[in-house]
Structure formats: C-alpha cells, structure tokens
Write the structure tokens for this entry.
Amino acid sequence: MTQSPSTSAPATAQDGPLPRQRRTYSIGELAKMFEVTTRTIRFYEQEGLLAPERRGQTRIYDEKDRVRLKLTLRGKRLGFSLAEIREVVMMYDAMPDGNRRQLRRLIEILTDKRRNMERQLEDIRLMQLELDDVERRAREVLASLGDSD
Amino acid sequence: MTQSPSTSAPATAQDGPLPRQRRTYSIGELAKMFEVTTRTIRFYEQEGLLAPERRGQTRIYDEKDRVRLKLTLRGKRLGFSLAEIREVVMMYDAMPDGNRRQLRRLIEILTDKRRNMERQLEDIRLMQLELDDVERRAREVLASLGDSD
DNA sequence: GCCGAGGTTTACGTTAACGTAAAGGTCTTG
DNA sequence: CAAGACCTTTACGTTAACGTAAACCTCGGC
C-alpha cells in the first residue's frame, strides 16, 4: 500500500452518506502527522493509551485514536508521564459508569493537574523574563564588540 | 553542626558593614529549601551546573549558587534537560569575553527556548480547556448519581 | 569519649521512554 | 516475479536523572 490517505473502504456507490467522519489512519500516517516514530505509537498502545482496531495484523486508527494521541503528546510536552496521562484517560473512559469514589478521585487528580498548570504558567513567565535579560545582555556585549575579535 | 542557618563566619564586631549579602548555605539547607535530595544537588554539580566553594571537604553554597539551583529546577519543571540548562548557563558565564560566534549562538539558543515557551503556553491553554471539560462532565455524572451506588 | 546529625566519596541499581535490529508477512507496481 | 514500501512481533540496548547503600570523616554537646 504505497501511501494513499487510507479511507476505510473503497466505498461502493450505494454506501449512502458516509457514517460521519469515517476517516482512518495507518500507523505510518499518524507517525508523520505528529512527527514521532511508529515505535512510539506502538509503545503508547502497549502502555494502554491507545487501542486501535485491527484489520488482520494491521492496526487501523480512527479519529478518536488520533485525538487521543494528540492529547498524549501534548501531555508529554507539558512534562506528564505516560502513567499520569493514562490515569486520566482511563478514568475518563470509565466515567459513564464510574462510582462516586472514582469520580471524586478523578476530580481530585484534575485539580492537581490544574495546580501544576498554574505553576508552569508562572515558571514560564519567570523563565521568559530570564531569557529576555540574558538576551539583552548578550546583545549589549555583542554591540560593544566594535572591531576586536 | 546541629543545624543553625550557617553564616559564613562568627563575624567579629569590627567587621564593619557585611560585604553585601554574605549568606551561605550548606547542602542540606538548600535541599530542604527546594525539596530535593542532597544527591540531586551533588549530581547537578557533577554535571557542571554548580560549583560551590569548599571548606575542607564540605561544600559551601552562596547566593549565586542558590539562584542557579533555583533556575535549574525551574528549567527542569519546564521539561529542559540538564544538558540544555547547562548549555545556557555556561554560555551566560562565558559571555563577558565571548566572541561573536558564541554570542550569536547563545542568542540563537535563547530564541529557540522562547519558541518552546510559546508552545508550552499554548499547550497549557489547551490542556486547561480539556481539564475544564473533563471535570465538568465528571461533575455532571456525579450529580446524576442521585442515590444509586 | 562517644553519640548523633550532619557532611563526604564511590559505585552499583533503577525507571521511563523509547531506539535499534532481526526476521518475517502483504501488497502493488514495473 | 522481484523489488519496494509498508506493516508485524520479539527482544535486547540505551540514556537521563537520579536512588540507594556502604564506609568513612568531623564536629558540638553531654
């Protein structure tokens, strides 16, 4: 299958209106899309963060999988471990029939993450000031280098 | 030395005005202050991020060291590797007598970090929205649990 | 004089998050 | 039908950032 935005099926004429967003993806497509390796994606599955369907051996990812991968990678960029991400993701999935204790626990976790975000915001603000400062100084020194060097 | 905010010296009466902020810290003090282990602090030194003085064997940290540790930990929280942090820190130190190439390189790195910060800001914004959403749903489900369970 | 609370070095262990390699299956295109 | 371009599993390797343990020094107080 030498590339070709994989639609789920050839779609015969009588299929009628496609069942709302029936797009699917191969592992390679997702990998390119998010600039990660296929290894990474398989690893995330192994860690319980993804659960694509299979056509034979081959993994078939749908829109939901893509979104989940996107969220996972975003979480990673923010310094969350895969375990943390999985915890939220799994609880989110189990929500509909979750009991009180689980739901409260979920909300607790979310509150915690939010605190984390707040701190990061502050860290970023401070770090930006630092960077500004360092760059300003660097430019000063650079400017003062009339001809020497 | 059963704890006692280590001042550098007993400071005899004739010392005159203390040479601007002469406070020093033991490794244990810093560890508590930043909630890390002493192992971590020694490790950072080994990685070239700190270079405290020695009184005999013992490490003596001053204000500059403390600030550097603070910045290092902040960088870590933002997902920078120690190598990245060291790169900036070392270039910053070498700045005064840095040549053009080095300075330009430093500015380049800073610009890169800044882009990183921008992305993180966006990521946080999005993540906060996600968290809001998940929590809202969780509370809904929780509220709908009149008496069952 | 020794005990406890600090400090030190050396060195091996651990964990997360993949990388990398081998060996093989399945299309499809020249 | 052979060559690519994909996909698969299995399994060992790697790196960063410490943790943990052992064995030691040193001071101030009782």
Notes: The first helix of chain A runs from residue 27 to 34. Residues 1-2, 37, 39-40, 43, 47, 56-58, 76, 81-83 of chain A lie near DNA strand C (CB under 10 Å from a C1'). Chain A is about 60% helix and 5% strand.
